[in-house]
Amino acid sequence: MTSWSSGTVRVSGGALAYHRTAGRGPSLVLSHGLTDNGLCWRRLASALEGRFDIVMLDARGHGASTRLTGEESFDPSRDLGEAIAALGLQTPIVMGHSVGAWATAAHANNNPDGVAKVVLEDPPFRVSADAPPSAARRQKFREMVERYRSMSDAGIDALGQTTHPDWRPEDRPDWAAAKRQVDPAALPELTTSWRELVDRIAVPTLLVHGEVELGSLVTPAIAEEAMSLNANIQAVQIKGAGHNVRRENFPLYLEAVQWFLSGSA
Length: 265
Fold this sequence. Notes:
The protein is α/β, with parallel strands linked by helices. Helix content is 35%, strand content 16%.
């Protein structure tokens, strides 16, 4: 990654930090999950950088992007769209994990002619249209973030080894660093039904999910429903993985993503 560059791009009310590879292929924009940062995509970006111009964004309230005080509202999908426009990316492939996948789906749904392909890694498709985060959930998130901030680097690393013993060692440093960069107010309100996020996506879309028993948010039934709602969507379940699909079974995840991006889909 010696040739990767870093910068910031203006969006409404702030700026998003990003890392970018030197690839000369199609643009591929990666949006991370809650409490991660852009470099948490490092392993995947390293595997794909020879074929794509990859942009790894830090979401608002994460990484080196604009901080959040809790007084302002924000829309991750709007931030994503504005960052793509400001960077001058023409019809990029968009890909996201968890909350980043929610933002990616919303952007693709609202801009059907503005993306080439879509990859959604275990999005929170169990969120109800009328269920914004409760006060109790927001408080729990704040307490988690404050706990991270009070821990040493060694303590966070030890926590990662305990909570994610099956992760490869190279995935932990960026995960640990990201945990110290999250704002307590970074929990977005995902108040749109997931079904309304996918009905107008007009390009090939891959929904990648793991096993519910291992923590996947997407059930087989939801995957089937998503495909029935939009014929552009195809789903693949990665065995041996939960919510962090790429971290828990990277070989099968990479195989599925490369097949999809290759044009075979």
